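Researcher: Next entry in the queue.
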Amino acid sequence: MIEVDIKKKIKKYLQNIEDDLIKSNTSLSAFNLLNEFEIIKHSPGIEEYGLLMAYEEITINQSDFDFIIFDMPPTALTLKIFSLPTISALWLNKLIDLRERIKKKKEIVSRMKIGNTEIEKDKILDKLYKQKNKYQIIEEVFKDKSRTKINLVVNPEKLSINEGLNIIKEFENYKISINNILVNKSVIRQKQLQEFKDFTQINFPTTKSKLIGISSLEKFINEMDDL
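Model: Structure for this entry, 227 residues:
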């Protein structure tokens, strides 16, 4: 089991931004985002990007496993994480278009000044294309039913059920499918929740003991089979 250190991931994300800025503009050599980390870490979107970076690293480093299970953070943050690759790709398309126009103007000026027909590779444009490709790959994985299975956990309570229905609608906007509804804290032999009748529902009754360790989980599964 791996617990994501979000503070560490945000620092790494900011470090990557800083490195890219310095590489693209040497006059920014004294630039240091990490000096203002305690303030910048609260910027909108930073936490989502940090968690998306963690997702990417885990899927790469743990690629030998048949399955990788992610226990997602609270609803609002989870929805932002799933939408982030799509939104990022849209923004990068705009930035790529803008950079392509800048590049063409630079080429015209270069030819006028020195008659040069070979222009140095645009490092910023190259970085934008790489970023776009990365987010498109993550987006494709999220949408691929054969690679990503999403289980929505709800409690048999009105507030939790309504939140679950809103999550399903949001995921439909992202063209991401929910696979199963896991009904937590259900009573024994509880009937299916009609609000989720179009989904496979699995009931998990409340346990008397904490589900910590393999033996506790095995005992719980055996008890479920006996119901």
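Model: Residues 149-227 form one domain.
Researcher: Noted, moving on.
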